[in-house]
Every structure is written in structure tokens, then in C-alpha cells.
Amino acid sequence: MRAALVLFGALVAGGAVTVLTYLSANNSAAAVLAGLAGAGASTIALHGLIGH
To answer: I need a surface site. Which of 4, 25, 43, 45 has the fewest CB within 10 A?
Structure first.
């Protein structure tokens, strides 16, 4: 259950980064790359924040 919560949170955060980057830059490739980076970073952060 913890892993699902961490991955879902990372998905939401990555999606938010993607949308905000696209609205800012109007560049879909940059938005996707920023979203993937945001999802990866938030996965690590949420893993550390959400305890066992």
C-alpha cells in the first residue's frame, strides 16, 4: 500500500510539472522531460517522507 501511495503521488506531481511547463514554454518535448524529472525526484522525496 505504501508503494502505491508513493507512486501515485509521484504521478500526480509529475503530471503537475508537465502541465505547468507546457503552459509556460509551449514546448511539449520539454514539458514531458520536465515531468519525468519531476516524477523521479518526487518518488525519492515521497519515499523518504512517508514512513513505514
So the answer is: 4
Give, in order, the Cα–Cα distances in Å from 37 to each of 8, 11, 47: 15, 11, 16
Return the SS3 of 35: helix
d(CA 6, CA 14): 12
What's the angle, vertex CA 13, arms to CA 11 and CA 15, rounded to 5?
65
Distance separating alpha carbons of residues 17 and 32, to the nearest angstrom: 9
What is the C-alpha separation between 26 and 40, in angstroms, rounded? Answer: 22
pLDDT in tens, 7-16: 999 999 999 9
